[in-house]
UniProtKB/TrEMBL annotation:
Protein name: GNAT family N-acetyltransferase
Pfam hit, one: Acetyltransf_3
Highest taxon of source: Bacteria
Keywords: Plasmid
Organism expressing this protein natively: Streptomyces cynarae
InterPro entries to which the protein is assigned, alphabetical: Acyl_CoA_acyltransferase, GNAT_dom, Ribosomal_N-acetyltransferase
Domain N-acetyltransferase: 22-163
SUPFAM superfamilies, sorted: Acyl-CoA N-acyltransferases (Nat)
PROSITE patterns, A to Z: GNAT
Length: 190
């Protein structure tokens, strides 16, 4: 699978691979919250951990993969796509801390949503959002996603290694269907 998608403002997207491990290490060096990659989200990545995480996100295996959002060779964030059934995918996104609230996530989610609808024939793309995550809720609305349902105590906090001792919170499911294609406003900067 190949992707070289221009997002405007000097941003472009490409599918991340193990060869991009150094970019992931540099991008997460200031992260304190869980990041997108691997079976267990973590903050900053060591080089070997980044290689291992990115090797699990392999589009050649017809599974989940990660699309890096770059400007001038610097990884600013990523969008993950995780197939969960015929023509259905979950999307997750992450932006490095110092680049948040600049419209990058909106641009990336908008562009990758339509790319996935067209290039991957994904009829349904969905986001799983913590109800307390106001920026993600606003982003979902802004780029044309629609609220579908609330799943009680569905998402893990990752505050403990053992699932039985961990905290769980509700998740809101927001969907984008391929026949819904509103344009993203040019003035968006969140």
């Amino acid at each position: 699978m190949d992707l070289d998608l221009s997002l405007g403002d000097g941003l472009h997207a490409h599918i991340l691979s193990v060869d991009d491990a150094a970019l992931l290490v540099e991008a997460t060096h200031r992260e304190t919250a869980p990041s997108l990659w691997a079976a267990r989200p973590v903050g900053p990545y060591a080089f070997q951990d980044a290689q291992a995480a990115l090797s699990l996100w392999d589009p050649a295996a017809q599974g989940q993969f990660s699309i890096g959002i770059l400007r001038e060779g610097r990884l600013l964030g990523a969008v993950g796509l995780m197939p969960d059934g015929p023509r259905s995918m979950e999307m997750a996104y992450w932006i490095r801390p110092e680049e948040r609230r600049r419209g990058i996530a909106s641009q990336a989610v908008h562009a990758v949503t339509f790319w996935a609808h067209n290039a991957l024939d994904a009829a349904r793309i969905w986001l799983e959002i913590n109800p307390r995550n106001e920026p993600s809720l606003h982003l979902a609305q802004r780029v044309g996603y629609h609220f579908e349902q609330r799943l009680p105590r569905h998402c893990r906090e990752w505050s403990a290694e053992n699932t039985e001792h961990d905290s769980w919170h509700d998740c809101l499911i927001w969907i984008h269907l391929s026949e819904r294609a509103p344009a993203l406003p040019d003035h968006d900067h969140s």
